Amino acid sequence: MSKQLEVGAVTVPGRVWIAPMTGVSDLPFRETATRLGASYVATEMVACAEFARGRPDVVRRAAVGEGLPLMVVQLVGRDPEHMAHGARLAAEAGAEIIDLNFGCPAKEVTAGAASGSALMREPDLAEALVAAAVQAVDVPVTVKMRLGWDDASRNAPDIAARAEAVGARAITVHGRTRCQFYKGEADWSAVAAVKNAVSVPVLVNGDITDADSARRALEQSGADGVMIGRGVYGRPWIAQAIEAALDGRDFIEPEADERLAIVLTHFRRSLAFYGERLGLKMFRKHLASYIEAAPWPESAEARRQARASLCRIEDPAVLEVALADLWLAGGRMAA
To answer: Which of 124, 143, 195, 303 has the maximal Cβ count within 10 Å?
Structure first.
């Protein structure tokens, strides 16, 4: 049985979590990953100011979604009052865990409103934001952060301790600074200082793509679990695969026909959620990832051609036929 993590009063039935990812972890993706065994899949980050302006029914549909066994909403912002209001709306919409984003390195997030990983430079404000969210809701509040703004200010242990002191129930740390963005390698060993600074569960994040990297990240960080980001692209079953490996259980990677069924189900969820035109457009980023992650075509040029060809198709029915042709032909080649 998978190791459980206790996040306040909420039990997460697994230690392999899927990160909130803008443009990726929409409701159709979260439904797909959850049905494939993921125990924790967060929403895309939701700006508190925008969340506060949304109608409750819009918030419920776009940010949370009905029927998932665990609903996790990630909020981003820098105004404690907005953060509290956003947290209340998220909880009213069904969120069982609310995660605060202190880790996004994107310039459009860190500039201007100066939120996301820019908060690593403002520990007092970061603490105030956690306190505001915790005081506003009865559900657990967690924080996702980086090691610091840059190598000269790796202050994640301090901010994590401050967050726990005002009520945060879990901490996730990406093993890079903001100034690294996604360059170089994640420093999993640096996350150990955060683990030593708090008593709540700590998740290690960054460059975790398979069972081997998950084991090494856990060993070097001493963390209680791992969070997968880019490693889930085109492989929404990867959390279950890593969970099984960590527990010493067997897991068989989906073969061609199974992958096709996963892709088609995800595609149809996207069409149902967004409508045919937008659903097709929104699915293309996932389609490109599915092709890239498949064990066929073997050459990079063939993959590029397959992506280009399929992502130009405008008719959902035609795309389904083309997908079947690609996947089943690939399965025969692999056999």
So the answer is: 143
Give the residue among 242, 187, 183, 250 at the shortest CA–CA distance from 212. 242
| pLDDT classification of 58: cutoffs 50, 70, 90 | very low
What would the mean pLDDT of 159-168 be, rounded to a whole number? 98
Q: Which of 48-57, 222-231, 276-285 has the lowest mean pLDDT?
A: 48-57
Catalytic one of 48, 104, 179, 311: 104
Is 48 tagged catalytic? no
Q: How far apart are CA 69 and CA 238, in angstroms?
A: 18
What DSSP assignment string belongs to 213-264? HHHHHHHHH--SEEEESGGGTT-TTHHHHHHHHHTT---PPP-HHHHHHHHH
Q: Is the peptide bond before 297 cis (omega within 30 degrees of 0)?
A: yes
**CB atoms < 10 A from the CB of 83, how many?**
28
Say what the pTM is.
0.91
